[in-house]
Amino acid sequence: xxxxxxxxxSALVLAACATTPAETPSTQxxxxxxxxxxxxxxxxxxxxxxxTPQTFLNVCPGMIATNVPARDANGKLVDxxxxxxxxxxxxxxxxxxxxxxxxxxxxxxxxxxxxxxxFSRESIPIHAGGNGKVIESGYRDDYGNYVVIDHGGGVFTxxxxxxxxxxxxxxxxxxxxxxxxxxxxxxxxxxxxxxLHYEVLxxxxxxxxxxxxxxxxxxxxxxxxPVE
Length: 228
What we know:
This protein is mainly beta. The protein contains 1 helix and 17 strands. β10 and β11 form a beta hairpin.
């Protein structure tokens, strides 16, 4: 694929993407939240035999990436940790390995981009960002094949544009951190490049809008949970 085509496809993401089992805990010392003071309580993060998130995340080279946090000269995010704490629940920041950040959370054009976009030229595995239960698993024109996981405590994650969904990602399934949900894809009713649109959500699920009535959280503004 030519650099021009990759750049052109990536621009479509910026214009169109989704605007509107047991764990073995490890206890690590807490670290500073982005823009905040140090956390004094130790935090537990989930581990998996199937998935260990990368300890780094790069901004996609050659793309016009929006709403990205501070990065070094090589495009690597600074002060990055693969886990965050949201309302006492620990989830992964980027539940894939081998992808780069093409768009962050925030206002994009005239609307709010309610998650982050992780880009790959090839379909790569997408994993559950934490322990929980699958409460939605279906298709929408804007989100394509998508999955929503309830992690408890009013914290949820959503995974959109999957090429396909694994049986483990069916509605009502109890799921462990790191479980394979499906492969990264470009499913939607409009042309988009292969990527994962990933959201961290909080609030009351028991409303008529279900997960689409929840509040979106900026994962890069949450409390980092450092790992060794």
